Amino acid sequence: QVQLVESGGGLVQPGGSLRLSCAASGITLTTSIMTWYRQAPGKERELVARISSAGVNTNYADSVKGRFTISRDNDLNTVYLQMNSLKSEDTAVYYCSAAAPMKLFGSWKLNNYWGQGTQVTVSS
Hints:
Shape: elongated
Number of helices: 0
Distance between the termini: 40 Å
Largest sheet: 7 strands, mixed
């Protein structure tokens, strides 16, 4: 059974930092694409950062480039999102997502999995 558990959210002042963690079980990170999304009330879900299965390729939303860093630790089966220079507009629920290959009935396909989310609030 696949499970993604986010942690590390909370309340922080503008300019502060937070480190989000996504602990994965039931999947192999070395063959999975991991993505952080966020969604604020009344707004559409936004891709924040993504890291490839090899951990080499990353991409970020323009709004977070230079401030956020996605990384992964395959030994700990955990993906991180380091968030620096936080702004009020970063306030949202942050979700961890995995695209993992799964073999069903003799064929392979990519399945998507989601964590429950962790709240990040940036306010003075």
